[in-house]
Amino acid sequence: MRLLVTNDDGIESVFLHELVRALIAAGHETFVAAPKVEQSWTGASKSRGRSVHSARVEKGLGCATWAVDGTPSDCINIAIGHLLADPPEAVISGINIGLNASLGFILGSGTVAGACEGALHGIPGIAVSQSVPVERYEAIKDPAAAHDPDVIGLLRVSAAHAARLAPLFAKQTPPMSFVVHNLNFPYPCRADTEMRRTVPARVILPGLFSPRDADGTHRLVFRLGDDQSPKSPLTDRAALEAGFISHTILDFSKLGSI
Questions:
Q1: Do 161 and 19 touch, CB atoms closer than 8 A?
Q2: DSSP 59-72
Q3: Edge-to-edge strand order for the sheet containing 29-35?
Q4: CA triple 117-119-121, angle to 5 deg
Q5: Which helix (H) or strand (E) holds 241?
Q6: What's the pLDDT tens digit per position in 198-209?
Q7: The pairing of beta strand 65-68 with beta strand 54-57
Q8: Nearest to 248 by CA among 161, 171, 194, 182
Q9: C-alpha 110, offset from chain centre
Q10: 227 pLDDT higher than 90
Q11: Where are the domains of the chain?
Q12: Pick the CATH number of 2-198+231-254 from 3.40.1210.10, 1.10.3720.10, 3.10.270.10, 3.90.550.60
């Protein structure tokens, strides 16, 4: 397939690089348009008040790659409109460092938003995220993790799953259907890890910012939120906790259905 890849952790992320390498190894024609710097939790925002710069870059990925000084949504919009000669057959966003499971995270995720931008162009979108322990998040996110055999081993397993599943989901999704597939991998993920269909967990996220400091500022304080989900159907959070790959279908054509 002809695939366009983005992320929200930025063009330098080894999580992005391993996904791209796995897609190319699986025989897919792959293009990358990713943020120049990290754009986590930017949601579906677009750079309305300033110009956005794009440039062809060489990252050793073996495919045409652009760094875009904007959000994931900017990346996909600009790539489809101006950088690619022909539109892609699917947009894949990830692999995100950390889960994007539950309503509270899905709605704020730059990774999910990149896939949604594909859907808004009538193209199947697939968001891919790797759950990591909260206590290991900063270490795994550090650029030095690119040389950590344990991190790379974990990533390559998840990337192989993504390279197998994402094109399959795309082929099953008709054009102009406004469908996004949200794929989350557990920690650790193994070659034989099973996948489960899930719904987004009902997680509320109050108190994400610190009290007002002396200089009048508030700072983000990460937390996983409070899960208010019923026991069934199976949620994305529950699937990850049980060690399964979570696959949630987000059908935006059903918003407001009566």
A1: no
A2: -SSSS-EEEESS-H
A3: 54-57, 65-68, 29-35, 2-6, 90-97, 125-130, 179-185, 245-251, 195-198
A4: 75
A5: helix 236-241
A6: 999 999 998 899
A7: antiparallel
A8: 182
A9: 7
A10: yes
A11: 2-198+231-254
A12: 3.40.1210.10
| Helix, coil or strand: residue 24 | helix
Report in angstroms the alpha-carbon separations of 63 from 8, 66, 71, 156, 195.
Answer: 19, 10, 21, 18, 29
DSSP per position, 148-212 = -HHHHHHHHHHHHHHHHHHHHHHHHS-TT--EEEEEEE-SS--TT--EEEEB---EE----BPPP
User: Is the CB of residue 247 less than 8 Å from the CB of residue 196?
Assistant: yes
Q: What are phi and psi of 3, to 5 degrees?
A: -120, 140
At 14, list the tokens.
């080894």
Q: Which two tokens stand for residue 141?
A: 């996110």
Half-sphere exposure of 15 (CA within 13 A, CB side): 29
Tell me: the pLDDT tens digits for 90-128?
999 999 999 999 998 999 999 999 999 999 999 999 999
Q: Which secondary-structure segment (H or E) carries 238?
A: helix 236-241
In whole angstroms, give the CA distance from residue 233 to residue 201: 10
Q: Which stretches within 14-172 are classed as H helix?
A: 14-25, 72-78, 103-106, 110-120, 137-141, 149-172
